[in-house]
Amino acid sequence: MSPLKRKKLNKIRSELDKLDNDLIKIIKKRTNLVKKVLSLKDKKNQIVDQKRIKIILKNIKKKSINNKIDPKITNRIWKNMIAAYIEFEKRNFNKK
Which domain CATH number covers 67? Predict the structure, then answer.
């Protein structure tokens, strides 16, 4: 790789690192909201809402297409994020 390309690569990676830091802040905010949602649930079987998951994924697909983002990428990210938060809620559910 040429020195110029290496410099460009490093600049782009630096931008990615900054973006990752922003994403961490957003994930923290999302986690705090999920904790609030969890505190309102009375039963563990209320954690997974398949209807809501379908709506979220449908909306993400539309937004991805409108923003010219490959919907397969966003679908995978959101499915993984939803699964991670379902697991988080199940681990943190304290009611019977």
Answer: 1.20.59.10
